[in-house]
Design goal:
heterodimer, A: MetI-like fold, 12 helices, globular, B: alpha+beta, Rossmann fold, five-stranded antiparallel sheet, 20 strands, elongated
């Protein structure tokens, strides 16, 4: 980097600022809306005239949002855990073993990921009603896993391939069972991959609106994105823009926390020093 | 501690390729045995079969008298040092070395004690709490050794453990390994492609080629009585010189002249009937500057040679000269040349180039003629067809 001239640095800084500004503008706008007094919501100013937390108070006045938050966290967390658990084992097998049907599994996973969700949501609705999964957590967790597993398998198998096989053999010789070698050596080393896959899976489940809206009907399993759509204003003439913005800000917080926690684990070069050259 | 026995062990892959063919080898308790050979000769595969990392297609493997063919690596009580060390990068040196003991549910206090003792032996004490990523190559190598010795296993298996170190460190670690092994007295199987390592380290050395065990013996046996052309060419540096020759009685016609065999050589070769075409092998140190020989002169023959090149090592000289000869045709020699890389250098290795190791005081000069002496007792002769040493047939 020392070879960069001042001029280059300046240009880079400007370019980065433009990109950051472009990316964050909508977020800042929502933050601004959520802090505006309901009366001045349409004033078109970027900075609120009267700072107020009224929208946030109104958001938590009823239980609807709290329930939705609980559902969102629970469903996304469970879907993530199961996806990572199953995905890592599948990815491990794909990265390490030669077995018939390996290509088929990968192709199948890819095909599932490419399937448009909208095309299955109708039949899922009927099926779930029949077998009693409608409006339950599992009713959402299962379709989420369908779409996040391929992602997890692809990400993780790429990471597993990077881990030298000798490490596992060393563990076996050190007296580890295959399961111990997997859990104590392979998984810790694939941690960046595991966390990357976990974040992607979590975000997918957290942000989904289509399934959440279609496959739920009450507070029992309705997640935040679906709940937001059901928000009403204080009166029928009032648009709940402020409250929705406040909710949008609140739902972003867990994602930010999660990324911040996991980001520290997503460091390159975790396998440095394992093998020579 | 235990002995390791390979009984007609064969490794055949799914595509029919045989990496190890019908290998039988007895490794005694506490012995240091080296498997050596060019790359692809099956030595690593053999080691990995002992470790349990490769299945054995045919034959029996016994460790401590018990057949272990079907046992998982963890149940064989062996420790292995990998070529690339295979340290667990997410664990500290202490955890790396204690991992096996921890898995074996040894009490933590005992683990600490053993790890610290091993660390003292290997001079790693101050690095115990560092991760492998922050260690130098030599330190990593020692950690890999440490991981093996803390367990006090029945046998050590080492797969080219020194090949990733630079030349100086390699020599240093070589002595270290040797000292460690003789102190611990643990049965050790050590794989290398470096014949110098094999010769200096092993109680016995097993030379392999293309999956077949060629010869097993002490370093001196391999050096002085190679079983065939391959072993003769592989062991020793600079390598043995090969040239076509004909034996008739005790007269041998070599490209640079006809000599009479010394009594030792004659005894080894035995009585040949009629004229026999053979390949003669002469080690570089069997030559000497005729002016430096003195009393031993009578046990050899002298001949003039035009020196092409002189390399001075300080303690000795390597003089290269060319002899008129037909090319020695042998698959084993071709393979050796290919392995050492000389096959790709035009004009080198084949075509009658001979190297002689001379006394440092020799007056050998590039481009000048020199009277050379060859010790006729130290000549080796190999069957021109199958490469076997005549002395052993």
């Amino acid at each position: 980097m020392s070879t960069h001239t001042t001029r280059e640095k300046l240009l880079w800084t400007i370019a980065i600022l433009i990109v950051v500004f472009y990316a964050l503008l909508p977020v800042l706008w929502i933050l601004s809306l959520s802090l505006k007094d309901p009366a001045t919501i349409g004033d078109g100013r970027f900075l609120p005239q009267d700072w107020s937390l009224k929208n946030y108070e109104q958001l938590f006045e009823t239980d609807a949002f709290t329930y939705a938050l609980r559902n969102s966290i629970g469903i996304a967390a469970i879907a993530t855990l199961i996806s990572i658990f199953l995905g890592s084992m599948t990815a491990y097998a794909i990265a390490r073993l030669q077995f018939p049907g390996k290509g088929l599994i990968l192709a199948g996973a890819l095909a599932v990921a490419m399937f448009p969700p909208i095309s299955i949501v109708g039949s899922l609705f009927d099926l779930w009603r029949q077998i009693g999964f409608f409006d339950t957590w599992w009713g959402l967790i299962i379709p989420y896993m369908t779409f996040t597993l391929p992602l997890a398998i692809y990400t993780l198998s790429a990471f597993f391939r990077e881990i030298p096989w000798e490490l596992e053999q060393a563990a076996q010789i050190d007296g580890a069972t295959p399961w111990q070698a997997y859990r104590k050596v392979i998984v810790p080393l694939a941690a960046p991959g595991v966390f990357t896959a976990a974040i992607l899976t979590f975000i997918f489940a957290w942000n989904d609106f289509l399934f959440a809206n279609t496959l739920t009907s009450t507070d029992r399993a309705r997640t935040v994105p679906a709940t937001l759509a059901f928000f009403t204003g204080g009166s029928q003439f009032e648009d709940p823009t402020g409250v929705i913005s406040a909710a949008a800000v609140v739902v972003t917080i867990p994602i930010i926390i999660m990324v911040l926690i996991f980001q520290r684990r997503i460091v390159a070069g975790l396998t440095a020093g394992a093998v020579k050259g | 501690m235990a002995e390791i026995q390979l009984d007609n062990v064969t490794k055949r892959y799914g595509d029919g390729y045989e990496a190890v063919k019908d290998m039988s080898l007895d490794i005694h308790d506490g012995e240091f045995v080296i498997l050596v050979g060019p790359s692809g000769c099956g030595k690593s595969t053999a080691l990995r079969m002992i470790a349990g990392l490769e299945d054995i297609t045919e034959g029996e493997l016994k460790i401590g008298g018990e057949v272990v063919n079907e046992r998982a690596p963890k149940d064989r009580d062996i420790a292995m040092v990998f070529q690339n060390y295979a340290l667990y990068p997410h664990m500290t040196v202490r955890e790396n070395m204690g991992f096996a003991l921890k898995l074996a549910k040894v009490p933590q206090a005992e683990i600490d004690e053993k790890v610290e003792e091993a660390a003292r032996t290997l001079d790693l004490t101050e690095h115990l709490d560092r991760k492998p990523g922050h260690l130098s190559g030599g330190q990593r190598q020692r950690v890999a050794m440490g991981r093996a010795i803390v367990r006090d296993p029945a046998a050590f298996l080492m797969d080219e453990p020194l090949s990733n170190l630079d030349a100086k460190l390699r020599v240093q670690m070589r002595t270290e390994v040797s000292r460690l092994q003789s102190r611990l007295g643990t049965t050790t199987v050590y794989v290398t492609h470096d014949q110098t390592e094999a010769m200096t380290l092993g109680d016995r050395v097993a030379v392999m080629r293309a999956g077949v065990l060629q010869q097993v013996g002490t370093p001196a046996e391999l050096y002085n009585e190679p079983a065939n052309l391959f072993v003769a060419g592989f062991i020793g540096s600079p390598a043995m010189n090969f040239m076509p020759a004909t034996i008739e009685g005790d007269r041998v016609k070599l490209p640079f002249g006809e000599v009479t065999l010394g009594p030792e050589a004659r005894e080894r070769v035995g009585r040949a009937e009629g004229v026999r075409n053979v390949i003669a092998g002469i080690r570089p140190e069997s030559f000497e500057d005729a002016a430096m020989v003195g009393e031993a002169r009578d046990s050899g023959a002298t001949f003039p040679a035009k020196i092409d090149l002189v390399e001075s090592m300080g303690s000795e000289l390597y003089a290269y000269f060319t002899v008129e000869q037909e090319r020695v045709e042998s698959q084993e020699l071709a393979e050796l040349a290919e392995d050492s890389g000389v096959g790709e250098v035009p004009g080198a290795g084949g075509e009658g180039q001979v190297v002689a190791r001379l006394d440092a005081a020799s007056k050998a000069r590039r481009g000048e003629d020199l009277e050379l002496w060859v010790d006729t007792n130290k000549l080796h002769f190999f069957d021109a067809d199958d490469g076997r040493n005549l002395a052993r047939s």
